[in-house]
Amino acid sequence: MLEQGTISIHTENIFPIIKKSLYSDHEIFLRELVSNAVDAIQKLKMVSRAGEYTGDVGEPEIQIAIDKDQKTLSLSDNGIGMTAEEVKKYINQVAFSSAEEFIQKYQGKSDQPIIGHFGLGFYSSFMVAQKVEIDTLSYKQGATAVHWSCDGSPEFRLEDSPRTQRGTTITLTLQEEEQEYLEPARIKQLVKTYCDFMPVPIKLDDEVLNRQKAPWREPPNSLTKEDYLEFYRYLYPFQEEPLIWVHLNTDYPFILNGILYFPKLKPDVDVTQGQIKLFCNQVFVSDRCEEIIPKFLLPMRGVIDSTDIPLNVSRSALQMDRTVRRIADYISRKVGDRLKELYRDNKEEYIQAWQDIGTFVKFGALNDEKFKKQIEDIIIYRTTNEAKGSDTPSVEVQSQEGDVWQDVTPQESEATTLPYTTLKEYLERNKQRHENRVYYCTDQVTQATYVELHKNQGLEVLFMDSFIDTHFITFLEREYPDVKFSRVDSDLDETLLDQDKAAEIVDPKTNKTRSELIKELFQQALNKPKLNIRTEALKSDDPQGTPPAMVLLPEFMRRIQ
Ligand code: ADP
Ligand code: MG
């Protein structure tokens, strides 16, 4: 037996579900109504450009009004309006949107995207309202104004309206428990959160509440450095300014716009929680982007706007989504490109920014194979090599009090000149002296003597002293199996040692060698009787004097330090 047909829906059963559970958050009703109003204004522009409307478009605006006595909140636009037929078609039929039809008909007539899509947004107003009214007049010639009302049951009323102005007013009579939306402060806050960058002024008592301009939708070459900085200040007030940003702007194979900034990394910044704001057609969606941004880029800040990120699916499904994965790849590639461009074109600025971006870059190299390949040649290290003509210039770094991320020793308060190098340059420069061997220091203060010793012997030392470097050194050892990485205080170069064993001094009182005495001293001081301490006699400038000794810490102390 075969039977085919259409599944029917009982409105009276489904309606309460739409009202209660359409969205988890009641407050987004305002976002939905404003989106519709913005679309209505945009649509009027489109029909006007198509020559189908020759009347005055006027100054686009959305007016919000609160009437505490009547317990109503209303939203008026001077957009396209609706005829009685359109109200029946698009409002009375749930989940029926005019967006697609409209876009097809007026393709190319729009500089702004139409936000609507699913034909559900309007009904979110029933989450907060016991009664919803529409008063509307279409732009179409000969159209008469209509008034639609619905008290939350599936029954509606449609009648003539005395309205004379083109556009639409939606009036919500709020439910008892939703009276908070009669407070101007609450409405302002909602507009600021969701509608700040929507391209039409939204007014409450004639005060414009939203910023309107969305810099991420501007062509990158039309924005100045100050524009980017101003936008950052706007998004994250009272924060230190970022040094680098990336403007994302693509239409294919997905639509993505955005501006991402590398912030100054501070110890109190929680880098596991994303701070990037997600938008869809300039409407704020969420400030949790963990599923879309590659993990290592989570500490970045800024905005991402894409219509291709499915907003109505679960977060775990989002991670599996192919487009979302491609967007993530695209973002990390763009970030890599931007860093390489800066390294190539403005090395000084790159070095200046390295204090903050270095951690991202290393974290990225550790976590993302593709990103690692892209940026491995622009990972730089501070070095003791001060030779003129070093491949990488040095830069003035201002030390700041209490700023533990600074690459400057705590004693130094003045600007310090710090040369930087890449690993490749280091290996090349030191090929003659120590091929495939890298000397590094993990703590500029406690290892200062060791660094000095190497420097005096003409050995170049790299500083790997940021908190991520412990992992990064292990990573480098894996990446460069031929290279030996020697920490300055645990693995001395042969040329530094006094090979003449006769130089070992014996203490006449205890009859112990200096090495033995030092070992005991350390074992006692650290309360580790089995600790294996090595002492080496070093070459001395004075052949007659006592050769200096160097204490070498065992390998595992590298991990506990
Ligand atoms: P969507 O916005 O996804 O299309 P909605 O449920 O929000 O769905 O709205 C349904 C339809 O109602 C819209 O497509 C539009 O045709 C019409 N509409 C809603 N609000 C307005 C308005 N302020 N002005 C003109 N038309 C509107
Ligand atoms: Mg809508």
From TrEMBL:
<dbReference type="InterPro" id="IPR020575">
    <property type="entry name" value="Hsp90_N"/>
</dbReference>
<dbReference type="InterPro" id="IPR020568">
    <property type="entry name" value="Ribosomal_Su5_D2-typ_SF"/>
</dbReference>
<dbReference type="InterPro" id="IPR001404">
    <property type="entry name" value="Hsp90_fam"/>
</dbReference>
<comment type="similarity">
    <text>Belongs to the heat shock protein 90 family.</text>
</comment>
<keyword id="KW-0547">Nucleotide-binding</keyword>
<dbReference type="InterPro" id="IPR003594">
    <property type="entry name" value="HATPase_dom"/>
</dbReference>
<keyword id="KW-0143">Chaperone</keyword>
<protein>
    <submittedName>
        <fullName>Molecular chaperone HtpG</fullName>
    </submittedName>
</protein>
<dbReference type="Pfam" id="PF13589">
    <property type="entry name" value="HATPase_c_3"/>
</dbReference>
<dbReference type="InterPro" id="IPR037196">
    <property type="entry name" value="HSP90_C"/>
</dbReference>
<dbReference type="InterPro" id="IPR019805">
    <property type="entry name" value="Heat_shock_protein_90_CS"/>
</dbReference>
<dbReference type="Pfam" id="PF00183">
    <property type="entry name" value="HSP90"/>
</dbReference>
<dbReference type="InterPro" id="IPR036890">
    <property type="entry name" value="HATPase_C_sf"/>
</dbReference>
<feature type="domain" description="Histidine kinase/HSP90-like ATPase">
    <location>
        <begin position="25"/>
        <end position="178"/>
    </location>
</feature>
<keyword id="KW-0067">ATP-binding</keyword>
